[in-house]
């Protein structure tokens, strides 16, 4: 059985940067996740997440990413595009995530498949609420993650 980790990244007190953990929270409340799927609110842990990658074949990361599009625009990136998307740092945890993937590769713990489901943030200021643009993107993000989980 393949093991999939859905990893929500971000700081929930920095407005749109908190989208990853908020998506994980929504998925935890939903019923019917496929067998072999683990949900993890990775917050801003970076390298501390390395033990969670052990035995993971598919890694689905949910995060706010700078893609140069309108706020609330969703994107799916895979493979080598994932570390590239983390080059433009919106938050310190993204450097940690890039380091995490590099260390996982060195330790031969890198998942076979890595997908980033991201959204262009509107605001990264201190606030516990998402901006209206990113909040409106939540259903699309959830649908994208669920499509990944169902293999579509």
Write the layout of secondary structure elements.
Blueprint: E1 4-9, H1 19-29, E2 37-43, E3 58-64, E4 74-78, H2 81-85, H3 92-106, E5 113-119, H4 132-150
Parallel strand pairs: 1-2, 1-3, 3-5
Antiparallel strand pairs: 4-5
Helix pairs in contact: 1-4
Please describe what this structure looks like:
The protein is α/β, with parallel strands linked by helices. The protein has a single domain (4-150), classed as Rossmann fold, CATH 3.40.50. 33% of the residues lie in helices and 21% in strands. It has 4 helices and 5 strands. The chain has a 5-stranded mixed sheet with strand order 2-1-3-5-4. Helix 1 (19-29) crosses helix 4 (132-150). The radius of gyration is 14 Å and the shape is globular.
In the CATH scheme, the class would be Alpha Beta
- Spans where pLDDT lies below 50 across 5 or more residues: none
In round numbers, the mean pLDDT is: 88
Largest sheet: 5 strands, mixed
**What CATH architecture would you give?**
3-Layer(aba) Sandwich
Q: Please identify which CATH superfamily we are dealing with.
A: HybD-like
Tell me the number of structural domains: 1
